Amino acid sequence: MTASVSTPPSTKSKQLGVIFVFTAGVLWSTVGLGIRLIEDATVWQILLYRSVSMSLFLYVVIRLRSGESPFAQLRRVGFPAVVAGFSLVAAYSGGIFAIQATSVANAMLLFATAPFFAAVLGWIVLREPVRLATWIAIAVAVGGIAIMVADKSGSIALIGSLAALGSSFGFAVFTVALRWGRTGEMLPSVFLSGLFAIAITLSICVYLDLPLLLSPRDGGIAMGMGVFQVGAGLILYTLGSRTLPAAELALLSLAEVLLGPFWVWFILGETVSANTLFGGIVLLVSIVGNALSGKRRKPPPITAP
Q: Which residue of 52, 77, 266, 269 has the lowest C-beta tally within 10 Å?
């Protein structure tokens, strides 16, 4: 049997990859605007409706794309898919609450710390080495986070900032779980997270006696977020990420962080505090520096825990 030799992606493939990943970032960046436009729904109601539309959308896409049920793909991945699914539910919940409790800029910038959490978790769980440059970037990022939350002591905005960090930690667990399961295919795990979220949020809504029927405006926005922001964004990111190195993915993902505050400022007039601005600059510098410093390095091998 002769070994197959993989060929590097063509220039056209890379260009399409850039377009797909950037478009995914643009779609994800509208999550803050979508939640701001919702009038009455709580985090659990929003997540319930968003998860229903996302799960249905991803089920159809996975069947058309692979010709098999997403449940068959999940069985092959096994327990890591369950961990990934539950971690995304925590990330979704924390993300929606954070945007409702603090500024979109503050929340989006803190969401961007997920790669640093993933690096530390990968080091602990998978024994993946962490570069010195990444440790330095993490230290700088911690300084930026400290600046951002310094003026929020004792306020709901501080709780929102902590929820945003919890959300980024959830996404980091999701990333590490995918590597643990030795699969780069995220769509089945995201589909499973939608099913988990439906069960969990439905139970919470019933327990808290929250109405399951939302207004057409709130329900439509929440379901639209599930299809266009989460579902379509993930599909484009999955397609584009196959032809781009990790450093370029990290830099292109900043489109989400930078455009998120822009939409709510341009459309709703929401501004940011000086601490969020200065701390966010420090955080962005750490992200860009870490991405550029690792541009020529190959990803480390995955070691079983």
A: 269
